[in-house]
Amino acid sequence: xxxxxxxxxxxxxxxxxxxxxxxxxxxxxxxxxxxxxxxxxxxxxxxxxxxxxxxxxxxxxxxxxxxxxxxxxxxxxxxxxxxxxxxxxxxxxxxxxxxxxxxxxxxxxxxxxxxxxxxxxxxxxxxxxxxxxxxxxxxxxxxxxxxxxxxxxxxxxxxxxxxxxxxxxxxxxxxxxxxxxxxxxxxxxxx
Length: 191
Ligand code: AP5
Prior knowledge:
Blueprint: E1 2-7, H1 14-25, E2 28-31, H2 32-41, H3 45-54, H4 62-75, E3 81-85, H5 91-103, E4 110-115, H6 118-132, H7 139-161, E5 166-170, H8 175-187
Helix pairs in contact: 1-8, 2-3, 4-5, 6-7
């Protein structure tokens, strides 16, 4: 099994690159943002609760997303591996993920962190907001999402650095150039 965490701030290209990685390496993507948006769309109790946080650019409570990921792992027992996109986003989530994967004897193989300047993140998200219909792609909420990233999510990079699983790559340039460098990292680690 090959488990990859795609890490980076809002708008760094995690979703875009996950789509390419799925095609090439046949891994299953687990995007907590996509799963939560599905719950919001279906107006489930979880979605109604999560929407309050998402619309303000705040993280949804750890126990909610950890529970979601745990169920998704159980639903996919026979896969080649997972891409974790947008998860973990707090050190508590990273520790919980390690525990879940340790239980299954399949640890995280590598964490790829995409580095993108704050100006570029804002430009990308504001321009996506003009077409996406996402309720969190507007300037005020984007600023909160980036603040939340610095306060709660960037320590996750240190967590993985201390475990020697973190690789930082430039996240600016063409989508293909970035995908080539991601593939270079995966190719040296996947069986
Ligand atoms: P989530 O859906 O995870 O959003 P995000 O991480 O804030 O950011 P995005 O997914 O929008 O960005 P991305 O890095 O995937 O970039 P993308 O490829 O889309 O989370 C949303 C909310 O859900 C959170 O705020 C929180 O409330 C909640 N949530 C989710 N997970 C949670 C968790 N684990 N814990 C707690 N709460 C959680 O690209 C962005 C744009 O840039 C696109 O338009 C794309 O076309 C463009 N682009 C991509 N690459 C390039 C490039 N190389 N050059 C130019 N443009 C590019």
